[in-house]
Design a protein that fits this description.
single chain; about 230 residues; mainly alpha; Serine Threonine Protein Phosphatase 5, Tetratricopeptide repeat; 12 helices; elongated; disordered N terminus
Length: about 230
């Protein structure tokens, strides 16, 4: 017990007596070996901080520059000049250039969406799938739209299994009354084409039960009745 009390009293001395702490600190720093350890540790910490701040600064500047470069490509896209939007005009970058030169930026990510949409219009469905799959967003509209376009591309390639999977993802991504019924309707069609009539009925039933104010409500009632008739036959 005496040893324990001595240890406790020494610990209390360090807390209650600042001079005791200072003397121990001085002793530590007076040792050259300890000085080297401290200086190396400080140097490493400073280097890590410098690299982090430098990367953040460069990435911020890179993203701002990419956004500026993207402006003309978006203009061409909206003007229906999809060739110039995709490949640039010799003076301004196209979406493919931005994806390549500004990898990791928001502009590059969004360029994947535009590029995928362009390839859909060019009927190059494999490239459409490739670029749309590289697009990632938390936005409820664009991400769901991207899934739906991938589903459309697989439909064109007669891969109804994959098409149905992507339409389902589109319908479930932050589900809402404005767009989810349309994606569910596409999901039902893909299911029907792959021969899964029961699941197609369930998709229409979901529109009927959860989106009764949708313009697709009555259409889904008709399609559900038609599919149920096919199963009976």
């Amino acid at each position: 017990m005496a040893r324990s009390k001595n240890k406790e009293s020494k610990g209390l001395d360090l807390i209650e007596n600042p001079e005791a702490i200072i003397s121990k600190t001085e002793a530590f720093f007076n040792d050259k070996k300890n000085q080297n350890i401290v200086f190396i540790s400080i140097g490493i910490a400073s280097l890590v901080l410098f690299v982090f701040l430098g990367f953040s600064y460069l990435n911020k500047n890179k993203n701002a520059e990419a956004q500026e470069e993207m402006f003309q490509a978006v203009y061409y896209f909206e003007a229906d000049s999809i060739g110039l939007a995709l490949n640039g005009d010799g003076n301004n970058y196209g979406f493919l250039d931005i994806i390549s030169l500004y990898s990791g930026t928001d502009a590059s990510n969004l360029s994947n969406f535009y590029t995928g949409a362009i390839y859909m219009r060019l009927k190059d469905f494999n490239n459409a799938i490739r670029y749309l799959n590289d697009f990632k967003s938390n936005d409820f509209l664009l991400q769901a739209r991207s899934y739906s376009l991938i589903g459309d591309a697989h439909m064109e390639l007669d891969d109804f299994e994959k098409a149905s999977n992507y339409f389902k993802k589109a319908a479930l991504h932050k589900a809402n009354k404005d767009f989810s019924p349309y994606y569910l309707n596409k999901y039902a069609l893909a299911l029907e084409l792959k021969g899964d009539l029961k699941e197609a009925i369930n998709a229409h039933d979901k529109i009927i039960s959860e989106y009764r104010f949708s313009v697709l409500f009555q259409e889904s009632q008709k399609q559900k009745a038609r599919l149920e008739g096919l199963i009976v036959e």
